[in-house]
Design goal:
The structure holds 2 protein chains of 2 kinds. Chain A is an alpha+beta fold. Chain A contains 3 helices and 21 strands. Chain A has 2 domains: about 190 residues, outer membrane lipoprotein receptor (LolB), chain A (Clam); about 110 residues, MucB/RseB, C-terminal domain (Phosphorylase Kinase, domain 1). Chain B has 2 domains: about 140 residues, no CATH class; about 45 residues. Helix content of chain B is about 60%, strand content about 0%. The chains are: A alpha+beta, B mainly alpha. At the A-B interface, helix 1, strand 1, strand 2, strand 3 and strand 4 of A face helix 2, helix 3, helix 7, helix 8 and helix 9 of B.
Chain lengths: ~325, ~190
């Protein structure tokens, strides 16, 4: 009887701790979206180190944010409720996409049981960073198909102070660490203006094809045969990503923490196909050609995951 | 003081600072633009030595940097890998890093010219973004490469990830930080 009681108590205390960890994550997610802040952070990846500045302001007009590199080639991303603009001086191009409307469900899944099947949530205790008190929350994957996370969350505002993304062996793949951060201050509108005009740049606009233009909207013509456990189709649509190309089918899969996009579009005869793996920090992409179609899988997941998905895409109905 | 700072930046690029030193230097870096430029120059040198420069940089660049390094190392009489070499590594490394930074700047500005033997002060060198642009054919004339095409997917995917994820706009750091490094490519299987 006593061992059973102990096991039950242990089980309960773990569940309570995991729920507390989830509350911290939820608080952090809300803080990043709702607070005004201006911070400088260091982004470490692939043996490199970039210094960036992020400015975020929320007012009656909605959210506005700006991310700019302080050490690299002055790339800049501006985002508001309607659009996202990426200014890429090294390519002399400006890329404009549409902001997504907020999801109807919470960012951190309320259903802890679902996420607990694939990750362990742990409260790792207190720490101090850049003059703030932080709580460390770890999200540990249970298999090799997803990355782990460690967040340092400021104890009053719940702002993110540091974020580590870890591989299957626990090593850090990417690290974001604020070196200066002001929260709850007045953000001048001028700080949200781009520093480059993009006047002599090439502009690219990504468009979303809506149902009225396309009778087959809502019906994927393709399917993914092999998915790591827990990844579910959460979104489907058609997008035009390149002016010269046709529409791409876009499927989104998520396990509640990580998100993977699958794009399928007709391969262009005069353009090199993208095949194999490409890595940008913790973001992996895998390209494959299937029946004359370019398949591109992108996500903040290990190489094995994007590869598994990309190499198992097939037309609906194909055997 | 200045030399110490340069030495620390060099060590930061090589990931040789302890956590406290790193935190202090990163705070200074966040405040001081000239330090960030210095850091970016060392980063470029480090990339060159690791043979991980972006595709658009002159393919011969790495070989010429190594040749310049050998020329630079010889007069100091510090052989790499010896006990003496290891002891003197920070200082010797700094001298080499500084001179190679100049070589990097000049060789990228005039790709087809020979590497100069005597170089002007590092302080007069422009930021990497400038010399990346000055190099070779203009970006618009380049054929589409997979790495470049991936920008469109990354921008689109980020909107999904940002919306579903917990870290606000931070995932866009991969686009912002990717400017001079189009990502590693593996051959198709």
């Amino acid at each position: 009887m006593r061992p059973l009681l102990l096991a039950l108590l242990l089980c309960c205390s773990q569940a309570v701790a995991a729920d507390a960890a989830r509350q911290w994550l939820h608080g952090m997610s809300e803080a990043l979206k709702t607070l005004d802040y201006d911070g400088t952070f260091v982004y470490q990846h692939d043996g490199r180190l970039d210094v960036m500045r992020i400015v975020h302001r929320v007012d009656d007009g909605g959210r506005r944010e700006r991310l700019v590199s302080l050490t690299g080639s002055a790339r800049e991303v501006l985002r508001d409720d309607r659009s996202v603009t990426c200014i890429l001086p090294d390519n002399k191009s400006v890329m404009i996409g549409r902001s997504r409307s907020p999801q109807p469900f919470p960012v951190v899944p309320d259903d802890l049981a679902t996420i607990s099947r694939y990750y362990r949530l742990q409260d790792k205790g207190d720490d101090h960073m850049i003059g703030y008190r932080a709580r460390i929350i770890a999200v540990i994957p249970k298999d090799e198909f997803r990355y782990g996370y460690r967040f340092w969350i400021e104890q009053d505002s719940r702002m993110l102070l540091r974020s580590d993304l870890t591989g299957e062996d626990g090593s850090t793949i990417e690290q974001v660490q604020f070196t200066a951060l002001d929260v709850g201050i007045d953000i001048p509108v001028s700080d949200l203006q781009p520093s480059l005009t993009g006047d002599d740049y090439t502009w690219h606009r990504q468009t979303e094809i809506n149902a009225a233009q396309d009778s087959s909207y809502g019906m994927p013509g393709w399917m993914v045969r092999e998915l790591p456990a827990g990844f579910m189709l959460t979104d489907f649509g058609r997008r035009r990503l390149h002016e010269q190309g046709g529409d791409a089918e876009h499927m989104v899969f998520s396990d509640g923490m990580a998100t993977v996009s699958v794009y399928i579009e007709q391969a262009l005869p005069d353009t090199d196909a993208f095949t194999g793996l490409s890595t940008m920090g913790a973001m992996n992409a895998y390209g494959a050609l299937v029946d004359g179609y370019q398949v591109t899988v992108v996500g903040e997941v290990p190489p094995a995951t994007v590869k598994m998905i990309a190499t198992s895409v097939q037309r609906q109905g194909a055997s | 003081m200045k030399d110490t700072l340069n030495e620390q930046i060099s060590a930061l690029v090589d990931d040789e600072l302890d956590a406290a030193e790193q935190a202090l230097l990163l705070r200074q870096l966040a405040r001081d633009e000239s330090l960030r430029r210095q850091f970016a120059r060392y980063q470029l040198v480090s990339d060159a030595l690791k043979d991980s420069l972006p595709e658009r940089v002159d393919p011969d660049f790495h070989r010429r940097v190594q040749a310049a390094l050998q020329d630079e190392a010889a007069p100091h009489g510090v052989a790499a890998g010896t006990h003496l070499g290891r002891l003197f590594r920070p200082l010797a490394g700094l001298a080499v890093a500084a001179s190679v930074a100049v070589v990097a700047v000049l060789s990228l500005q005039s790709v087809r010219e020979t590497v100069p033997q005597s170089a002007p002060a590092v302080a007069s060198a422009p930021a990497p973004a400038d010399y990346i642009r000055a190099e070779g054919s203009p970006p618009a004339a380049l054929p589409a490469t997979p790495a470049r095409d991936l920008d469109a997917y990354l921008v689109n995917h980020n909107e999904v990830a940002v919306n579903r994820g917990m870290r606000g706009m931070l995932p866009y750091m991969r686009i912002v930080g990717q400017g001079e490094q189009p990502g590693s490519q593996e051959a198709a299987e």
